[in-house]
Amino acid sequence: MGSSRRVSAVVLLVVVVAALAVTGVYGKEKKKKEKICNKGWECSGSVYCCNETITDYFQVYQFEELFSKRNTPVAHANGFWDYQSFITAAALYEPLGFGTTGEKQIKMKEIAAFLGHVGSKTSCGYGVATGGPLAWGLCYNHELSPSQSYCTDSYVYPCTPGAEYYGRGALPVYWNDNYGIIGEALKVDLLSHPEYLEQNATLAFQAAIWRWMTPMKKKQPSAHDVFVGNWKPTKNDTLSKRLPGFGATMNILYSDLVCGQGFIDSMNNIISHYQYYLDLMGVGREQSGDNLDCAEQAAFNPTAPTATS
Ligand SMILES: *[C@@H]1O[C@H](CO)[C@@H](O)[C@H](O)[C@H]1NC(C)=O
Ligand SMILES: *[C@@H]1O[C@H](CO)[C@@H](O)[C@H](O)[C@H]1NC(C)=O
Ligand SMILES: *[C@@H]1O[C@H](CO)[C@@H](O)[C@H](O)[C@H]1NC(C)=O
């Protein structure tokens, strides 16, 4: 009796120790799986920083190739944009997956896609421009002849007297409420000082990457999400022809101003920049991916009939 009780006590002890050991090992394995990596200022404090980061596959000479005409005398933001300001701005978002998600090719494609939007929106290239119309991205850092002051009634983000909210930045920001929202996110008072976006290239890139990484509404994906494969379309999305790919990034950023209108120039121009950059980065336009356009997509957030971008 006595010895059998001792035996069962020993068995129990062994079981408990084994269970503890298993939990311990499991805990360690789990920790290892979620290893945090530090690559210095460029990318630190996240699992995304363990793989290649942007400077590993996108270097200054490539930036110069993509935006080869931006510092020519006729360019309107001559001397403003540079590689370092892009990398410094990206460093805030690399730990969240910007240019650091998935296989190397997906990372490179995300940078080509993001910069494709930027290049298209800041281009002063036209049909007969030297170097071709796609070589003129980052030609502007602000709208040249605004037709209005882009001030709308807003309780939360009222216009600062004298301030103008015309298009500025790498993915141009318009309207006081958009300056207010982005300023709040970046902790810079853009509502009082919208001009910062045409004075500071790092801030201009930060605002653009924030826009790329942030869903416009709750329960909606960001442009980053639909591009890197973080997003599963609902039945409604599928019925609206919204599927993962470059096309859906245009839907999120420009809505029905660009999407659901067939193969219009403004949409084709953004796609052309993306593919031109894929070629220059050595990925190749044949890797553009499925659902490249949004010609037939219904907007995630249709614009109100009276509002414009
Ligand atoms: C790191 O790279 C591997 C292989 O390319 C990829 O499967 C994995 O998803 C990457 N990690 C993250 C956090 O994206
Ligand atoms: C430009 O913006 C960045 C990011 O907000 C900031 O760190 C930097 O100090 C700014 N530079 C100048 C000259 O204001
Ligand atoms: C799906 O779309 C229909 C029609 O536009 C809408 O009434 C419904 O609320 C949507 N369902 C979801 C889950 O979004």
TrEMBL record:
Q: Which reaction does it catalyse?
A: Random endo-hydrolysis of N-acetyl-beta-D-glucosaminide (1->4)-beta-linkages in chitin and chitodextrins
Starting at the broadest rank, the lineage of the source organism is: Eukaryota, Viridiplantae, Streptophyta, Embryophyta, Tracheophyta
EC code: 3.2.1.14
What GO terms in the biological process aspect are recorded for it? cell wall macromolecule catabolic process; chitin catabolic process; polysaccharide catabolic process
Q: Where is the Glycoside hydrolase family 19 catalytic domain?
A: 62-294
Keyword match Signal: yes
Q: Which residues form the signal peptide?
A: 1-27
- Disulfide bridge map: 151-159, 259-294
Q: Provide a Gene Ontology MF annotation, just one.
A: endochitinase activity
Organism of this sequence: Acorus calamus (Sweet flag)
Identify the domain of life.
Eukaryota
UniProt KW keywords:
Carbohydrate metabolism, Disulfide bond, Glycosidase, Hydrolase, Polysaccharide degradation, Signal
Q: What is this protein called?
A: chitinase
